[in-house]
Amino acid sequence: MTDPRLDRLLARAPALRLTIEPADLEHYGRDWTRRWTPTPLAIALPASVEEVQAIVCWANEEGVAVVPSGGRTGLSGGAVAANGELVLSLERMNRVLAFDEVDRTLTVQAGIPLEAVHNAAREHGLAYPVDFAARGSCSIGGNIATNAGGIRVIRYGNTREWIAGLTVVTGAGEVLQLNRGLIKNSSGYDLRQLLIGSEGTLGIVVEATLRLTDPPPPTNVMLLALPSFETLMQVFAAFRERLVLEAFEFFTDRALHHVLAHGAQKPFDELHPFYVVTEFAIGDEKQEAAAMAAFEHCLENGLVSDGVISQSDAQAAQLWRLREGITESLAGYKPYKNDVSVRISAMPAFLAETQALLSREYPQFDVVWFGHIGDGNLHINVLKPEAMADGEFVGHCEQVTKLLADALARHDGSISAEHGIGLVKKPYLIGTRSAEEVVLMRGIKHVLDPNGILNPGKLFDP
Q1: What pairs with residue 108 in β-bridges?
Q2: The domain at 219-327 falls in which architecture?
Q3: Under 8 Å CB-to-CB from 304, ≥6 apart: which residues?
Q4: Does 74 have pLDDT greater than 80?
Q5: Residues of the chain with CATH 3.30.70.2740
Q6: Percent of the chain with pLDDT strictly greater than 90
Q7: Which of 3, 43, 63, 346 is deepest in the core (most CB within 10 A)?
Q8: How far apart are the C-alpha atoms of 416 and 2, rounded to whole Å?
Q9: What digits encode the pLDDT tens for the residues 132-146?
Q10: What is the pLDDT of residues 108-133, one digit of tens each?
């Protein structure tokens, strides 16, 4: 190593894998936002809690900032290293450590991919119910850092509901064992919940004990075509009233256009302006009849125009691809993304206001909408015209995001539903959180990360 600081790091942790290869610096120094040029000092790939602790202690001594890194599938710039930080990638810490049959918990290292957790739970006849399209590449540590939600929040809730315990290395280099898998624990502040959603600014999650549950019941998937935006929440109400919903996902004709261009199969002969993919329990004939009754009610009342129900697992997967393939199909367009949420009861008014806002402000752009309508989460993707410069495009989108943030404030919503604040949404934190809350958040960071080495500049400025 040419940098003496890195030599001192290796002297402290001789077995640590450390790289300064240009390709590695670029690969590990960014996330899916692709808006910042990565310039990390180096990439550290520890294999143990002790090595993570050694890195943090070294960083405090040397005054080097550290960016914790999982699968880097984030969309808010939370894993970007653009200012000479050391990237601490947890990808080598990817093992299942323990399974407890009585407690029905799975203890894993933070770098394990979500899909591997699903597979491990399945081997024991159980399920880890948090799920989303990036399951093969996102990591549990990253899910915890952003309190990830996904497609089944309507039934199972966010990541924080499934974390029984955490092992964390704080910004001061201390190793904390949080909650230790307890179901009941009224012994003061729950620091475990404080770390969940903290975006790597307070501590580095190195191990997690996950709660497991029974596998979901048999389900069917239905794709619905909607004639207008206004019927969306009425369709949701009709299905929620009659069925046990596992998921209720919405997307537009523009989203379908891009997924079909990416290789998915066309679901209907005719095109429709809006679509819903919903999955629901079907344990017996009564539940199957309820599903058809919900569809027929919506069809008779003009709330849906067409629909198809899966007849096999393969067809269910094809229908889900129409929703889960959206993000990948848009990646080449450098989309500007908004990930917002409001209460479900506020969704109709917010949707109407937002649709008018985007139609007015983005007439020249391809705007792709999709989201987890069943839990009040909407994703808005604005695609950059090929001829427009990146800076001009982002500048225009940021002006519109200010208007969107104002609309969210009026509806008591959040500028970040499940992707975190990171760098992208930092200017809009005030509006989702009060000034008093932000002051308290800064104070908490100072206690757990006194020298400000962990992911500085993310969430709020130092």
Answers
A1: 96, 208
A2: 2-Layer Sandwich (3.30)
A3: 224, 225, 226, 227, 231, 235, 295, 298
A4: no
A5: 334-419
A6: 76
A7: 43
A8: 40
A9: 878 988 999 999 999
A10: 999 999 999 999 999 999 999 999 87
Instruction: Quote the tokens at residue 56.
Output: 């943090």
Domain 4-91 grouped into CATH 3.30.2350.10: no
Angle formed at CA 383 by CA 379 and CA 384, multiple of 5 degrees: 145
Dig out the tokens for 423 from the structure.
């760098």
Confidence band of 443 (pLDDT split at 50, 70, 90): very high
Cβ pair 85, 66 in contact under 8 A: yes
Any idea which architecture 96-211 has in CATH?
2-Layer Sandwich (3.30)
Rounded-to-integer distance, Cα 149 and Cα 132, Å: 8
Please give the average per-residue pLDDT across 316-324, as a whole number.
95
Mean pLDDT of 260-265: 94
What pTM does this model have? Answer: 0.89
Q: Under the phi-then-psi rule, with left for phi > 0, alpha for psi from -120 to 50, and beta for the rest, what region is 461? A: beta
Per-residue pLDDT tens digits for 273-287: 999 999 999 877 888
Q: Are 146 and 199 in contact, with CB atoms under 8 Å apart?
A: yes
User: Rounded CA gap, 334 and 315, in Å?
Assistant: 30
Q: Which of 43, 31, 157 is nearest to 424 (CA)?
A: 31
Rg (CA), the chain: 23
The amino acid present at 12, given as its one-letter code, is R
Pick the CATH number of 334-419 from 3.30.70.2740, 3.40.50.970, 1.10.230.10, 3.40.50.740: 3.30.70.2740
| Six-digit token string for 124 | 């024991």
Mean of pLDDT values over 71-99: 92
The boundaries of every CATH 3.30.465.10 domain in the chain are: 96-211
∠459-440-422 over CA atoms, to 5°? 5
Contact between 186 and 70 (Cβ < 8 Å):
no
CA distance 234 to 351: 13
End-to-end CA distance of the chain: 30
* Strands, E assignment, 78-201: 86-89, 96-100, 105-109, 163-170, 175-178
